[in-house]
Amino acid sequence: MNDFSTLALRREIIESATARGFERMTPVQAQTLPAILTGDDVLGQAETGSGKTAAFGFGLLNKLAVERAETQALVLCPTRELADQVGQALRQFAATIANVKLMTLCGGTPMRAQVNSLAQPPHIVVGTPGRVLAHLRRESLHTHALQTLVLDEADRMLDMGFIDDIEAIVGCLPDERQTLLFSATWPDAIREVSTRLQRNPKQITASADRQPLRITQIFHQVDDADKLVALEQVLADTQQRHKAFTQALVFCNRRDDVDRVCAHLNKRGVAALALHGDREQRERDEVLLRFANQSCAVLVATDVAARGLDIASLPLVVSVDLARDIDTHTHRIGRTGRAGEAGRAVSFCTPRERDRAERIAAAGGFRLNWSRWPETQASARAQPPMATLVVQGGRRDKLRPGDILGALTGEGGLTGDDVGKIEITTVRSYVAVARAKAVPARDRLRQAGIKKRRFRVGVLDD
After folding, report:
1. Which SUPFAM superfamilies match (predicted)?
2. What CA–CA distance (Å, rounded) separates 37 from 356?
3. What is the separation of C-alpha 196 from the centre of its chain, rounded to a whole number of angstroms?
């Protein structure tokens, strides 16, 4: 049986798996966890959504000595967004183990604040290579007690040019350690890195144990000058199909095109947000949070910026610019049709790009479905049902989700149905509330406070 109880896992981790609804192991967990638990290095091929975070997370937590105030595990990720996602997952996995301290170390956060926090070493560090290396060089991060190194989405890190930073980081780590390397693909560069960083790794290829993808792929031949009109029509057609608020993820290849498309949609009454590398890290974090909160209808992004984005129900993905290769195309369309739901992936293709589209289809093993982009008299206007409040107080102020929910409901005037996701960071808290009640909710929190304390509160969508 693919049951976690059949493995030599500590009781708290099995309780965590049960609490999170993990009824049985996914293929990647069933194949990698036995090797991880016996201390072997692992070279694992697994896609996003396959359950690999739980595989390496349960493994590193299983041998964590909480009584030792030392950094014992390091997880490297290619982007801040993925690092945050992995960090949140590990915190949830560790919820049943008392006093586990975890830190994310990424750019976009002041070094001094991180240095101060590292004065009390975390048991687990999740971060991007550049920022982790910066702390190692200034000796604010100590890794003499490190037991486990994880490289998550290693192929993406190599694509982004992080190999020198990774090798420099490894040079600061103990030779006696376990190294777990997970990658969606195994190009020669990954195998070469594995040879240098790992010792006789168990090589495991696992596919995600999930329902078959129900994605309808559609290709429209569109001239560059017509792309914005075609995008409006595709969005309007989707709204008509669902007869309710729906969200869409739109990909562009260039940052300036992301801004251009986003500005056009907002002028046309579609609540859109832009996500790319030129934005400050806090802005990028808040854009992703607002999209996850249903506080915007359309997210327009570059591929790197959208890495790690995981929205459970997303009916539509549009590539305004055709993906450059099959891996990028696969990553894009994989954002829809998740959890067994149906999804549509629409790709625009100029006449000069037809050959590239044919190559992508051939490499992906699917047939091109060409059609005329829809023409409808309906408007693409879409205002989201939720707005996001930002409270200038967080974990540092001992705030918990229940504190904020309690302040908003009851005498606060909102019902439980009016409140959506609540996310608390070190210094800020974000809460999704029904858009029509956002301003009264803001005013209520400003006047009555939370836990008898006053905090600055604003509507993030302003």
Report:
1. P-loop containing nucleoside triphosphate hydrolases
2. 44
3. 29
